[in-house]
Amino acid sequence: MSSKAPKTIAIIGSAIAGPTLALQILSNPVLRSAFRPVLFDQAGAPGLEGHNEKNRSGASVGIFANGLYPLHRLGLEDAIRKRGYECGKLTTWSCDYAGGHERLNTQANAMWSHDLQTGVVYFERRALQSLLVEKVKELGGDVFWAKKSTSFQALTNGQTRVNFADGSDMAVDLLVGADGGFSSVRKFILDQRNSTTASDRWLPDFMGLTGFYGVSANIKAKGAPAQFSDSQLIWLDQGYLASGPCSDGKIRWDLVLTEKKSPSSNSPLESIPESTTDAERWQSAIIPSQYPYNSTVDILRKHNNVYHPYSGTLGELFGTADRIIRTPLRQRVWKQDEIQCGSTVLIGDASRLMMPTSGQGTGFAIEDATVLARELLKHASSPDTDKIRVALEAYARAREPRSKKMASMASFAASWSTNTGLFWKGFRYYSSKLQPDTLEVK
């Protein structure tokens, strides 16, 4: 095996799944000798002049035990403890729009892992990405920023040609799409399988919900009962808000509300009107999207006076956000033959997009990279085209059932937590109210 040149793996996307796969390969001597992973991302490198950090996808991520364990095995445990923030207590509240509130219950270490001796760990998404990419570079991996792939071509020798916006191209032995819920690599796979149905199968399904996401600076109201390390779940009349700690004294928050229909795919991106400079501070943090700007402002303004046990009100939480992202919530689990074709495969959100009620978007991305690396390892001693295909097919068979199960749980959780019917409102309230407090800290 050592006499053969390593096979090139082009990984499109360098958020979470892509760098994790590169680390799995670079950290294993057998895989490293058989494969050369190369990361490509259409965004500019974080920290470079002209790169807008506010516009990086997502706001924050939480990692549970299933995602933490593979990262610990990759030697990242100390870095995760240092640069992430472990969740403490989880308190559930019932709040109205005028500031009225009632604490329903508190659970200490509600998401505790006995095996790893840790709770869920929260990161700003870009902070976790930076941690992973730094490790890839430390191990000698290649990362190319501002390198947008524009098209792909299956070659007769089993390779795939990747064409880039700068006019360059590259023939690769294995193409991995880690490019998110609206993956261009997935389009390539679907077109190969059946071009007449590709467009219908490509788009994830709208789930009747809209999400607002933000990361706010540490702002504690005078006399606030909550600690910075606590997470909060606030039941609202229509939807809920969840918040929790991130590193560097920041609070991540998600506001999820019901919505009848998603914005049209051809709706123009709306920038912030210049006339709003003297309005609420949080208006300048809204990232342009396909939603009408005034609609986003009106919805957030409606929640200004909602109680929050750490910041005082949601308005105070919004007011210190460096970015506010609004997006329609979508979900879909693509089938085995939709996430793999020949020497092309999908990982992360490209292979299955789940709602935030799963809590497992990041964990499953890390799982994907780990399972794919494991399957490649089984055939690394003879990484010809057929063996690569066998490994990718085994990966796809393993991931689809687990993804479907988690997506079903996410759908149920979303329906349970946002249904505006009287029965479900009462069920949420009393199931939380009657749950006894558990205040012992691990």
Any overview of this molecule?
The chain folds into two domains: 235 residues, FAD/NAD(P)-binding domain; 176 residues, D-Amino Acid Oxidase, Chain A, domain 2, CATH 3.30.9. The strands form five sheets. The chain has an eight-stranded mixed sheet. Strands 8-2-1-12-21-20 form a six-stranded mixed sheet, with helices on both faces. A three-stranded antiparallel sheet has the order 3-7-4. A hairpin with a 3-residue loop joins strand 15 and strand 16. The protein is 33% helix and 26% strand. Helix 1 runs parallel beside helix 11 and helix 3 crosses helix 11. It is an alpha+beta fold. The chain is globular, with a radius of gyration of 22 Å.
Provide the fold topology:
Elements: E1 7-12, H1 17-26, H2 29-34, E2 35-40, E3 60-63, H3 65-73, H4 77-83, E4 85-86, E5 90-95, E6 101-107, E7 121-124, H5 125-138, E8 142-144, E9 149-154, E10 160-164, E11 169-172, E12 174-177, H6 184-194, H7 198-202, E13 205-217, E14 231-235, E15 240-246, E16 250-258, H8 293-302, E17 307-308, E18 312-313, H9 314-319, E19 321-333, H10 336-339, E20 340-341, E21 344-346, E22 352-353, H11 361-378, H12 385-418, H13 422-433
Parallel strand pairs: 1-2, 1-12, 2-8, 5-14, 12-21
Antiparallel strand pairs: 3-7, 4-7, 5-6, 9-10, 10-11, 13-16, 13-19, 14-15, 15-16, 17-18, 19-22, 20-21
Family: Belongs to the paxM FAD-dependent monooxygenase family.
Protein name: FAD-binding domain-containing protein
GO molecular function: FAD binding; monooxygenase activity
